[in-house]
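User: structure tokens for DOMON domain-containing protein, please.
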Amino acid sequence: MKKLSIVLIISLLFSLPLAAQIFPTSSSNPVVDGSLGNNEYPEIVQLKDMRLGYAQSRDSRNLHFILEAPTTGWVSVGLGSNRMHGAHIIIGYDAITSQVISEETGRGHGHSPSSEKMLVQSKIKETGGKTTLEFTVPVSQFDSGRNLRLIVAYGNRDNLRSKHVTYDSHTINFLK
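Assistant: Done. Predicted tokens:
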């Protein structure tokens, strides 16, 4: 009986969605408004002079991300790689009169528009010398493997092609 209970518990643990094991779940879903509210994201990491927050939605269907950087130019988060190459890059800027957010595919040291669109929600906002990119993607895009690799960066111009001023990478490890 004890062995059966252990086998059932282990089976249950392995049947949980992988993202449920990766991301902390927020007590309430973050509001995708381009600003980092108090206690909105249960996990916030400092990456050089940027702050990256992430959370899983309460229904476990979506992943929420927010990146705040000290710039009045573009900001980006690349998902799936610690380098530009191979990353699905969400990049954007707020030029006051227009806000631009694009999904790009990293190729070598560059990127181009992606044919794969996965954004559920997104918002970019510049205020007080900082630009904040916030977005939601489906869990199903990233729920396989042992970790989720990310690259974050920002530039000082309102465009999608100028070189970054600063970048960093981060890996979110899955629980074993």
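User: Anything notable?

Assistant: Residues 4-21 have pLDDT under 50 and may be disordered.
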